[in-house]
Amino acid sequence: MGMLVIKGIHKDFGEGEVLKGVDLSVEKGDVIAILGPSGSGKSTFIDLLVRLKRSSEGELLFRRRPIEDISVDELRKQVFIVA
Length: 83
Hints:
Blueprint: E1 4-13, E2 16-26, H1 42-49, E3 57-62, E4 65-66, H2 72-78
Antiparallel strand pairs: 1-2, 1-3, 3-4
């Protein structure tokens, strides 16, 4: 199992669904890039990872723990984002 596992993540804002069933597994030491056109959900996806937003559906696990069970301070010490 990866260090970060994302299973079936959905995020909607009212009638508009931004993320539609995103799956991803990231192993320790992996470097990933999220690319896409404006409005495709890149920022929303990152906001879910650092707990600025909550998903509408699906599961986010960090080190096998649900991301909701990890303190924001602990999570932000271990997840790095370059914008």
